[in-house]
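Continuing the batch. This is chain 6 of the set; chains 1 through 5 are on the previous pages. Same settings as before, nothing changed between runs. Recording input and output for traceability.
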Amino acid sequence: MTRKKKTTQLFSQYFEEWIELYKVGAVRPITLKKYYISKQHVEELAPDLKISDLSRRTYQKLLNDYALTHEKQTTMDFHHQLKGAILDAVDDGLIAQNPTRKIIIKGKKPREKRPKFLNQFEVQALIKEMNLTNELNWDWFILLILKTGLRFSEALAITPNDFDFSSQKLTVDKTWDYKSSKGKFQPTKNESSKRKIQLDWQTAMQFSQLVKAIPDEQPIFVKGRIFNSTVNNRLQVLCNKAEIPNISIHGLRHTHASLLLFADVSIATVARRLGHSSMSTTQETYLHIIHELENQDNDKIMRHLSTIA
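Output for chain 6:
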């Protein structure tokens, strides 16, 4: 296609071609899906917008229209995906000036956020409400994430072979593609997500009995199509019974990390246990807890210095 014809091409079509050229095979399927969803939004909001029509004004209008039904952070994510394609169009000479420069990000009022984590007393209240029978159920799944900080897809992929009961360790080296109707094992989020997690003796002993009759390579919690909402609904029931804040399954991972940090476990150790690619990820995610711990440390320092005459 000549440059002249390319400039008269619809932006939604250009964006789709850009996705197929630069993103297919280069990003994870879940990320690729988000790009295609963004492409659908462009088709709906600006069906007649051509490459040659892209300007700061037309691009700002596109973002403003998107922001009417999305929160500010979601609008920012949408902008970042479109911006990659637009900057390439500028580099290729299809657009004279960068239309994304000095753009304003708007968004509708955020929904009230769920608490991100529970404290130790709330965790104990939650566990008391669990129906921990002699057979695996979603309550055992919830408990395992509380005790290990696993991601939802990582916990679904756990098989009997992943447990080393002699050393009380759990190997994490795969995830379960629960979003697909077929369901299958997939790689971990990144290489650092592959790890061995130390289990407490009680959890190790409990699961050694629970997985005895399950084939070595079979996911212990998967018995058909899995929906995130199913487990979240069960967790909500438990939280209501325990009269504690409602949190999500991912909130259990935050809870695990926060309990370790408040127990003075180092950030480096928490980062490895969670499978973070770097300590900076852990620091950014749990900055509020780290600040609280720093305040506690300052109190300890002052108390200690006051004893020195």
